[in-house]
Design goal:
The complex is a heterodimer of chains A (309) and B (256). With 309 residues, chain A is an alpha/beta fold. Chain A is built from eleven helices and 14 strands. Chain A folds into three domains: 151 residues, 3-Layer(aba) Sandwich (Rossmann fold); 62 residues, no CATH class; 78 residues, Alpha-Beta Plaits. The longest helix of chain B is centred in the N-terminal third of the chain and has 34 residues. Classes of the chains: A alpha/beta (309), B mainly alpha (256).
Chain lengths: 309, 256
């Protein structure tokens, strides 16, 4: 690989795409370095696919710029596209071709030199577990295999950037695990953008996450930061004889109180203090009947639901 | 890159039953037309030889054979071309080509060449029929070459128009019918318009309209006359519709 790690592979700034008066995507910034996996989230219709189509040169942005490994997508689309592997939401498969024929065609179209094609073909089949079906017509394969052929065509030419639109749809749990480890492996040497609805998938394999809502980026951070930020800042408090909520809220270090269920409260703690000790002491003194005190992990799901509901 | 796409198109054509049915039907229809004409020729031959300069077998038998094939191609080419772009859009496989480092021009040209190669095969198979007479008679090879060239240009024009119509829709059958209707209109109206304009002495408009009159451009070559303007018109027609197809597909990228 000619490009050293930590080099920006995708750089998109102020991407906007309007269809008539409706803005499907507005002002989306996106930057990805080599070796990173970006999780691209959002409810249906948030503009994920539109953004991916712009990044892959299939849709011209109304405004904004896209650079792939330093090559301007709008000025030199052919050179930029050569660095990308793209799996659209619906894998673009020719049912009349065999797996080998289809992948060879993809390699030729991506201008892989003849001498390197055989190795690339073998490697792609190996990585996606397609060896035993290589001579079958794609139309006769099961959904899972077809999905894997779609992934294989996106990675066969060893692109710097791999863009996968919902790659694990229609796969069984074992295949999903296989694809996840493949994406993780790709993340080591390539940049990967992954769009998905499965949040656990993002937490498991992505380095960064961006959430899109109504065509705008509403959240963008690293997974590590997300976990650090939200763990321990909220506690669940269970009391058998609870005092009025106002009394709990008045405790030092408690930012807000929310009633989670009958005798369970969710306490948002102030950023700079940890009042757990006083909380326990007070509960004993006033005989509130403390039976549960646990840090509430804020998951990506909470973030997602909060931002997009 | 263009040839890679052309090869893929050819492979796709041969993988479909339609292409084989078209090949079979063209062979049967032209074969019948050829044999019938040949039979007629043998019956009237004694009378023909009494003429001062009798028409030869090439004029009487072979020229009508190519005219018949031209009519069959008018039906066949729209059918062969209908899937080319419409089905790729319908199945969302066009994105496979447009995501690759290949320009729209290369994609459309590749598809056109693939289709044109298949149509050339039909013309070649038809040409074998008159050549089967070599052993028994003298043929006018100049006329046969001119007929071949004329039919190829006509088929190329049909292909380009059909390809353009195929880029307009996602329904292959609509593409086939649309292309057929458009070609028929061009043939009928083009013919009338060129003659009408010329009769009024409006040479320039007539010359312009002739570009869009494929059969009018076939006529000179069909008689063995190499009319460079007619040939140029055929080439222009192909170019115009290829450019239109490219523009339409590129417009989808720009406007969505």
């Amino acid at each position: 690989m000619s490009i050293p790690p930590n080099v920006t592979t995708i750089y998109a700034r102020a991407l906007t795409r309007r269809f008539g008066a409706h803005a499907a995507v507005s002002n989306v910034d996106l930057e990805l370095r080599r070796g990173e996996v970006l999780g691209f989230l959002g409810p249906n219709g948030a503009g994920k696919t539109t953004t991916m189509q712009m990044l892959t040169g299939n849709l011209a942005p109304t405004e904004g710029e896209i650079t792939i490994c330093g090559v301007d997508m709008l000025a030199r689309p052919t050179a930029a596209k050569a660095k990308i592997g793209y799996l659209p939401e619906k894998p673009p498969l020719y049912r009349d071709l065999t797996v080998d024929e289809y992948l060879s065609l993809s390699l030729k179209l991506h201008r892989v030199p003849k001498s390197a094609r055989h190795t690339a073909l073998m490697r792609a089949k190996e990585r996606c577990g397609l060896r035993e079906v290589r001579r079958q017509l794609i139309g006769t394969l099961s959904k899972g295999y077809q999905q894997r052929v779609g992934i294989a065509q996106a990675i066969a030419h060893e692109p710097d950037v791999v863009i996968l639109d919902e790659p694990t749809v229609g796969l069984d749990p074992n295949q999903i695990r296989g694809i996840r480890s493949l994406i993780r492996e790709l993340g080591g040497t390539h940049s990967v953008i992954l769009s998905t609805h499965i949040l656990a998938e993002v937490e498991a394999i992505c380095d960064r996450v961006q959430i899109l809502h109504h065509g705008e980026v509403v959240y963008s951070d690293t997974i590590a930061a997300l976990k650090a930020l939200h763990s321990g800042r909220t506690v669940l408090l269970g009391l058998r004889r609870p005092p009025p909520e106002a009394e709990l809220a008045a405790l030092p270090g408690v930012a807000s109180v929310e009633r989670a269920s009958d005798r369970l409260y969710r306490l948002q703690l102030a950023a700079d203090r940890d009042p757990t000790e006083q909380l326990v002491q007070r509960a004993v003194e006033k005989n509130w009947g403390l039976y549960q005190l646990a840090p509430a992990q804020t998951s990506l799901e909470d973030v997602f639901v909060n931002l997009t509901k | 890159m263009i040839l890679t796409i052309a090869a893929k198109e050819l492979k796709a054509l041969f993988a479909s039953p339609l292409a084989w049915m078209v090949l079979t039907a063209v062979q049967i229809i032209s074969g019948y037309a050829f044999l019938k004409r040949l039979d007629d020729f043998l019956q009237i031959q004694p009378q023909l030889v009494q003429l001062a300069s009798p028409p030869g077998v090439t004029e009487v038998v072979v020229a009508p054979l190519y005219a018949t094939t031209a009519i069959v191609l008018l039906f066949a080419v729209p059918l062969l071309a209908m899937r080319s772009i419409a089905e790729e859009r319908r199945n969302e496989t066009l994105i496979f080509l447009t995501s690759a480092p290949v320009s729209i021009v290369e994609i459309v040209l590749g598809k056109f060449i693939g289709l044109a190669l298949f149509v050339m095969l039909i013309v070649a198979l038809v040409t074998v029929m008159p050549l089967s007479l070599i052993a028994n008679t003298r043929l006018d090879y100049g006329l046969i070459a001119s007929l071949c060239a004329g039919l190829l240009l006509l088929a190329a024009a049909f292909s380009a128009v059909s390809l353009y119509v195929s880029s307009l829709t996602t329904y292959p059958v609509a593409a086939a019918f649309g292309a057929f209707a458009m070609l028929l209109l061009m043939i009928l109206m083009g013919e009338a318009a060129v003659d009408g304009l010329r009769a009024r002495g409006w040479q320039l408009p007539a010359a312009f309209v002739q570009v869009f009159s494929p059969l009018k451009n076939f006529e000179p070559l069909g008689k063995g006359v190499v009319d460079t303007y007619a040939i140029a018109c055929s080439v222009m027609l192909v170019l115009v519709f290829i450019v239109l197809a490219v523009r339409h597909l590129d417009g989808r990228r720009l406007r969505g």
